[in-house]
Amino acid sequence: MSESLKSSNLKIAILGAKGYPYVYGGYDTLVKELGERLQKKGVEVTVYCHRALFKDKPSHVNGIKLVYTPAIESKSLTQLTHSFVSMCHACLSDVDVIFVVNSGNGPFGIISRIFHKPTAINVDGLEWLRPKWKGLGSKYFYWASKMATKFYDHIINDSVEMQRIYLELFNAKSTVIAYGANPSLSSDTSKIRKWDLENESYYLIVGRLVPDNNADLIIQGYVKSNSKRKLVIVGDVPYKDDYVDNLKSIEDDRLLFTGYVTDPKELKALYHNCYGYFHGHEYGGTNPAMLKAMGYGCAILALNTEFNQEMLQNGKHGWYFEKDLNSVVEIVDKAEKKPEEMKKLRETARSGLTQKYNWDHVTDQYLQVFKSLAGKK
């Protein structure tokens, strides 16, 4: 196949996420935004879907071919077994390039290597550091991430800091392609009235309620503050969990747990009308929830990490707090006392979404990688 391979001849398989058009987490969003744009550019896109999550199983949606593969349904094996079956199926198909998301799927690159199928993997996140993967789980993700650098033809990271880490830990070069954002200037304010909320009457947290997103730190610090505003916590976990139960048992009238918010218009309104958005994510690279906050014009209060510094351009588009209760209390106090500065953060948030966070630009970068891999087939 020649280097000048046209988009209209290119066949790409995408696997490792929940499927399409299922949108819940960052990888699912990437599959949707990237897949739809590639399809419009004439690429034949196949997405592997987790069979158990789809009641209806159409063969095509929006021109994207869908394959529904099974998995062993358990907390620790679902994702990996689904990816394993999907990889085997993709290797036996006529696709030119296989694109995999999630470093946990690193070892499966040996399958595509055996079948001589060109591959790229988006490794994202320091999974082995996340508190939920203690012991064996942590060791597996570190090993899997290392194997990804051995078996896949092209490694993709979503931030410069993650690129540095992969070079330092695994001596592996990677390409930085960020996640994209869909900025919006307005929302339907009536959507937040179901929770008795008004414009700028609350702070917001959005994300899975897991320890490495530090909702506990933010909530406990907020409870110690003197703010009269509410703290709205959007998110949950799909299983019984002591960490989440403990958070929900904190007694304070200012705390509002909404659970999952699946209506995108409601979620946009929650972002767009908040006084400030708390971002406690610790181990990711380019975070989709942060991109939403920037795109919807939020005043961002973020945990001080290298990843968050990179996204907020070292404080240009947000304020930082440390992993310390008093630091949370102090940043709430600062936000309450400086409404004009908070307003300025809201007004300038979208300008932080530089070209690298534009989905069309992101797609063009991925397409360049895929064409290069197909050309070497």
From TrEMBL:
Q: Does the keyword Transferase apply?
A: yes
Q: Which GO terms describe its molecular function?
A: glycosyltransferase activity
Gene3D superfamilies according to UniProt: Glycogen Phosphorylase B
Question: Which EC number applies?
Answer: 2.4.-.-
The superkingdom listed in its UniProt entry is Bacteria
The entry's keywords: Glycosyltransferase, Transferase
Matching InterPro entries = DUF1972 (IPR015393), Glyco_trans_1 (IPR001296), Glycosyltransferase_grp1 (IPR050194)
Q: What are the TM regions of this chain, as residue ranges? A: none
Pfam families given for it?
Answer: DUF1972, Glycos_transf_1
According to the entry, every stretch annotated as the Glycosyl transferase family domain falls at: 193-350
Domain DUF1972, by residue range, is: 12-181
Keyword field contains Methyltransferase:
no
Protein name listed in UniProt: Glycosyltransferase
- Provide the species name: Belliella marina
